[in-house]
Write a structure and sequence with these properties.
The complex is a heterodimer of chains A (317) and B (290). By secondary structure, chain A is mainly α. Chain A has two domains: 52 residues, no CATH class; 238 residues, MetI-like fold, CATH 1.10.3720. Helix content of chain A is 73%, strand content 0%. In chain A, helix 3 crosses helix 8 and helix 4 packs across helix 8. The model of chain A has no long low-confidence stretch (mean pLDDT 89). The mean pLDDT of chain B is 88. With 290 residues, chain B is mainly alpha-helical. The radius of gyration of chain B is 24 Å and the shape is globular. In chain B, helix 4 runs antiparallel to helix 10. The chains are: A mainly alpha (317), B mainly alpha (290). At the A-B interface, helix 1, helix 4, helix 5, helix 6 and helix 7 of A face helix 1, helix 4, helix 5, helix 6 and helix 10 of B.
Chain lengths: 317, 290
C-alpha cells in the first residue's frame, strides 16, 4: 500500500519533470553552446595548469608528464630566482600602483567637473570627445604618442624647442617613460570611466543640493557634502575591483609603448610570459608565473572586499 | 535662483578646464592628420604642427596602393563582422535562458560562468590548448577563443531582467515557446543593449592585437590591421610591406606612418558618436552587476 503510494508520487514527479522538459528543453539547447564554450576555452585550459608542476614534454599530454623537481615546485623556485621575472613583477606592481594613485581619482574629478558644467550642449560635446580615446587601440595610441613625443621631430618637443626649452625624452628614458605610460593611461580611460560616476551622480536626490544651498553651502561644500558622499558606494566598488587587479597586467599597453631603451621598466608579467613562453617555449615556467598571478589577483580581490565590508561598506558580493 | 558673480566665474573656470580636456583629446589626432597630409620637406623641417603644410595625398595613395595593407584592412573588417555576429548570438543565447528564474541548474551554470571572470588559467594554457586543437595560425583563432565575454553577458542579462515578466507570461499563455518569445518580444525590446554590445565586440575585434600576435604570428596573410600597424610603426623590416620603400626617406616614412594610423582609426571614429546614448545605458547596466 505504502509502496504503491510512493510509486504514485514518483510517477507524478516524473510527469512533472516531463512537462517541465517539454516546455523548457529549448532553453537547455541554447545554453549548450555557451556552456561548451566555457568548458573548452576556460575550464580545459585549467587542466593545463599542471604543466607548471611538471617537466614539459611536447609528445605527452599534461597528465602523463613527469613531476618536476622539488616536489613539483621547481619552476616556481626558478621564476623567483630569475632576474627578468623579478623585474617584471616589480614593474607590474609599480605601474599598476601609479595607475591606481593617478588614474583612479581622475574620472571622479572629471565627473564632478562635468556635473558642475551648466552648458548642456557643451557638456555633451565634451563627453563625446572625452570618450574617443577609449575606442583607440594601444597600437594606435603608441603611434600617436611616438609622433607627439619623439625627441626632435615630435609635436611636443618642437613646441618646447621653439619656446626655448630642452627636449624631453618622453618615451626614451626609463623615468620619463613611466610617467608617460601613466599619463597616457589616464588620457585613454578618464572620459570613459566617468560614465559610471555620472550615472551615480544622476541618482543623487536633488533635494539634498537644495537643502545644502538653503544652509548656505557654496560650490565646494556641495561637492564635498553631497556629491562625494553620493558617489561613495560606486567609488568603493570600483576601488575593490582595481585593487583586485594590482598584479593583473595588460599586454597591449606596455608592449606597444615599450622600446629597447626602457625595457628595465616596461617589461611586466604579461610581456614576460609572452617573451619566455610563446617566443622562448618555456611553457612550465611561464604557466607557473601565470598561476602565481591569477592566485594573487583572487587573493587581493577577496582581501579588498573583506576590508571594505569590515569598514561597513557593501562590497562586491 | 539668480546666480551670483562668483558662481558664474566658477562656471567659466569649469568650462575652461573642459575645453583643455577637449584639446588634449583632439590635438594628437589633428597632429597625425596634418602629418599624413603634409609634404616630406615640411616634415623634415619640423614645420608641421596642427595644420598640413604642402598639402598632398601621396602617402594615402601609397598606402592604398599597397595590397598587403588594403587586404589587412578588408580582412579585419571581415573578421570584425563575423566575430561580432558570433559573439552577439553567443551572448544572447547565454543570457536569455539565465533570466528564467525557475530554470533547473541555473545556479550551477551561473556559478560556473562567473568563476571564469575571477580566475583564469592564463595565456600559456590557452596557447597550448589552441595548439592541441590545431587552431594556431588558422583564421578561426581570431574569432572563436574570445567570442563570449562574461561581462557583456551580464550587461545583456541585466537588460533582459528589466523587461516586464508579464509580457513573457502572457505570451506563454498564448502558447509561445521560449525561442519564439526571445525572437518576437525580447530582442525587439533590446535594441539599446544590442547596439551597445555589438559596438563593444566590434571595437574589441577591430582593435585586437595580442591574440593575433600570439596565435597568428606565422600567417602573415591573416594578420589583422593592428598587428600589421605595430610592425609598420616599429619599422620591422621583415614584413615586406610595399609602403616600406618610403621608409628610407625620413620625412616620407613619417607621413606614411601617419596615414596608416588614420586608416586604422577612422572607421571607429565614424561609428561610436552615433551610439553614444546607447552605450551609456550599457555601461551603467554593467556596473550594477548581476
Amino acid at each position: 500500500m505504502l509502496t504503491a503510494q510512493s510509486n504514485l508520487i514518483k510517477m507524478k514527479k516524473w510527469e512533472k519533470n516531463i512537462t517541465y522538459l517539454k516546455r523548457y528543453w529549448t532553453l537547455y539547447l541554447l545554453l549548450l553552446f555557451p556552456v561548451a564554450y566555457f568548458i573548452i576555452f576556460k575550464y580545459i585550459p585549467m587542466t593545463y595548469i599542471q604543466i607548471a608542476f611538471k617537466k614539459y614534454s611536447i609528445v605527452q599530454s599534461p597528465w602523463e608528464m613527469p613531476l618536476a623537481d622539488n616536489h613539483g615546485f621547481e619552476f616556481f623556485i626558478k621564476a623567483f630566482s630569475n632576474r627578468d621575472f623579478l623585474l617584471a613583477l616589480r614593474n607590474t606592481i609599480m605601474l599598476n600602483f601609479l595607475d591606481l594613485i593617478v588614474g583612479f581619482p581622475a574620472p571622479i574629478i572629471l565627473a564632478i567637473l562635468l556635473n558642475e558644467l551648466p552648458y548642456k550642449k557643451f557638456k555633451r560635446f565634451t563627453q563625446t570627445v572625452a570618450y574617443m580615446p577609449h575606442f583607440l587601440s594601444w597600437i594606435i595610441i603608441s603611434g600617436l604618442a611616438k609622433q607627439l613625443f619623439t625627441p626632435t621631430t615630435g609635436l611636443v618637443n618642437i613646441v618646447l624647442n621653439r619656446l626655448g626649452f630642452e627636449p624631453i625624452p618622453f618615451l626614451n628614458d626609463p623615468v620619463h617613460w613611466v610617467w608617460t605610460y601613466v599619463f597616457l593611461g589616464v588620457w585613454q580611460s578618464v572620459g570613459w570611466n566617468t560614465i559610471v560616476y555620472l550615472a551615480a551622480i544622476t541618482g543623487i536626490n536633488p533635494e539634498l543640493y537644495e537643502a545644502a544651498e538653503i544652509d548656505g553651502a557654496g560650490r565646494f561644500r556641495k561637492i564635498w557634502h553631497v556629491t562625494l558622499p553620493g558617489l561613495r558606494p560606486t567609488i568603493i566598488t570600483l576601488l575593490i575591483l582595481s585593487l583586485g587587479r594590482i598584479l593583473g597586467s595588460e599586454f597591449d599597453r606596455p608592449y606597444a609603448l615599450s622600446n629597447n631603451l626602457v625595457t628595465e621598466v616596461s617589461n611586466v608579467i604579461s610581456t614576460y610570459v609572452y617573451a619566455y613562453g610563446i617566443k622562448g617555449l618555456q611553457f612550465s615556467l611561464t604557466t607557473a608565473v601565470g598561476i602565481f598571478q591569477s592566485v594573487v589577483c583572487v587573493i587581493f580581490l577577496f582581501a579588498a572586499n573583506a576590508l571594505a565590508k569590515k569598514f561597513g561598506e557593501r562590497g562586491i558580493w | 535662483m539668480v546666480k551670483s558673480n562668483s558662481s558664474k566665474i566658477g562656471d567659466l573656470i569649469v568650462a575652461f578646464l573642459c575645453f583643455l580636456l577637449i584639446l588634449a583629446c583632439l590635438l594628437p589626432m589633428l597632429n597625425v592628420l596634418a602629418r599624413s597630409l603634409s609634404s616630406t620637406e615640411a616634415l623634415i623641417r619640423n614645420e608641421v604642427l596642427l595644420w598640413p603644410k604642402g598639402l598632398n595625398f601621396d602617402s594615402y595613395k601609397m598606402v592604398l596602393e599597397d595590397p598587403k595593407y588594403t587586404w589587412s584592412l578588408a580582412w579585419t573588417a571581415i573578421i570584425t563582422v563575423i566575430g561580432t555576429c558570433l559573439s552577439m548570438v553567443m551572448t544572447i543565447i547565454c543570457a536569455y535562458p539565465l533570466t528564467y528564474d525557475n530554470l533547473k541548474g541555473k545556479r550551477f551554470i551561473n556559478a560556473m560562468i562567473l568563476f571564469t571572470m575571477y580566475f583564469n588559467a592564463g595565456t600559456i594554457p590557452l596557447y597550448l590548448l589552441l595548439k592541441d586543437l590545431n587552431l594556431l595560425n588558422k583564421p578561426a583563432v581570431l574569432v572563436i577563443p574570445y567570442c563570449l565575454s562574461v561581462f557583456n553577458m551580464i550587461i545583456m542579462r541585466s537588460f533582459f531582467y528589466g523587461i516586464p515578466e508579464s509580457l513573457r507570461e502572457s505570451a506563454e499563455i498564448d502558447g509561445a515557446g521560449p525561442i519564439r518569445i526571445l525572437i518576437s518580444i525580447y530582442l525587439p525590446l533590446s535594441t539599446p543593449v544590442l547596439a551597445t554590445l555589438s559596438l563593444f565586440y566590434a571595437v574589441g575585434r577591430w582593435n585586437g592585437f595580442s591574440d593575433a600576435l600570439m596565435f597568428m604570428n606565422n600567417k602573415r596573410e591573416y594578420w589583422p590591421i593592428q598587428l600589421l600597424l605595430y610592425n609598420i610603426l616599429n619599422n620591422v623590416t621583415s614584413i615586406e610591406v610595399a609602403t616600406q620603400e618610403g621608409f628610407t626617406k625620413p620625412g616620407l616614412a613619417d607621413s606614411i606612418k601617419a596615414a596608416t594610423v588614420m586608416f586604422a582609426t577612422v572607421p571607429i571614429l565614424l561609428v561610436y558618436p552615433w551610439l553614444q546614448k546607447y552605450f551609456i545605458t550599457g555601461v551603467t547596466l554593467g556596473s550594477i552587476k548581476g
